[in-house]
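Hi R.,

Here's the chain you asked about this morning:
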Amino acid sequence: MSDGIKQIAAGIIVYEGSVLIAQRKRGKDLEFFWELPGGKLEAGETLEECLQRELLEELDLKVNVGSLFMRSSYEYPFGSFVINAFLAECTSPIITKICEHEQYKWVKPQEMLDYQFSPADVPIVKAYVQSLSK
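And here is the predicted structure, written out as tokens:
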């Protein structure tokens, strides 16, 4: 296990009122848990650039990254992470590539509460759904 906290850029990716969620792959840490798509920050890039790069690499999905919605920290047995969740929009919901996940779904925000998200994502999902009901 490497030392230090890993910074993750994740997207609350919205298309016509639905949000993109992704299910982690079999055999990976937190297999089959759902998460907001994104990935680990690499040296020399901003969190926004990281999110755009990860979504292109993993989904072939182009997004317009908006503001930081919130951060969530979590310490797993396999490492410590900070999830930086950004609001983002895409112009097309078509996903032509799937390499890091079992599956993806577009769901209404309230439906996100019906899925088992990874522990680091849970506070973000709850806060996002609550923010829409105000």
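One quick note: The CA atoms of residues 33 and 116 lie 6 Å apart.

Cheers,
M.
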